[in-house]
Amino acid sequence: MGQPTLILASASPRRRELIARLGIVPDAINPADIDETPAKGELPRVYARRMAREKAEAAASSDGFVLAGDTVVCAGRRILPKAEDEATARECLALLSGRRHRVLSAIALRAPDGTLRERLSETIVMFKRLSTDEIDAYMESGEWDGKAGGYAIQGIAEGLISRIQGSHSGVVGLPLYETRLLLKAAGFEIA
């Protein structure tokens, strides 16, 4: 009997690129369409894990494994939004300027038998103090669009980050170390 299929419950090209670094090409892409609104008073860690689990369940299949993830940028207990407009992105970057913040990347793997495994990666990121000109230039790049916390570490923003402690791939959107461990623990063949 061959390897079970792997369904990636995400439309993110970054997650596809990252999982390819593990030598895996998903057999299918099935983005989960769920309500991603945080519950009132929900803490970032709880929210990230809940989102990953709900996405895995929404894309569930009896034919194979379903891998889902969610990345949350938070400042203290505050969950920063995905920047859908320039004003939100500017607000996020102004808040993150010159200070540490956390990026939580939760992943959930649902096996064909319904078993659910999950992991959480936590990374500390520190932006330099950003000038108005630097924020303006970043806005012009358009990289902020749709990104949690208003930035993409895999682009221009990386040059504005003075320190990172944890998983770079987790900040991009899929913590590879944790993903590999999760797949191996579930019996998915991976080198």
Assembly state: single chain
Low-confidence stretches: none
Q: Could you tell me the radius of gyration in angstroms?
A: 17 Å
Approximate helicity band: 25-40%
How many distinct helices?
6
Number of strands: 7
What is the N-to-C order of secondary-structure elements (H for helix, E for strand)?
EHEHEEHEEHEHH
Overall 3D shape? elongated
The largest pleated sheet is described as: 7 strands, mixed
Can you tell me about this structure?
The chain is built from six helices and seven strands; from the N terminus they run βαβαββαββαβαα. With 191 residues, it is of the alpha/beta class. Strands 1, 2, 3, 4, 5, 6 and 7 form a seven-stranded mixed β-sheet that branches. Helix 1 links the parallel strand 1 and strand 2 (28-29). The protein starts with a strand and ends in a 6-residue tail after the last helix. 36% of the residues are buried.
What's this, in brief?
With 191 residues, this protein is of the alpha/beta class. The chain contains 6 helices and 7 strands, in the order βαβαββαββαβαα.
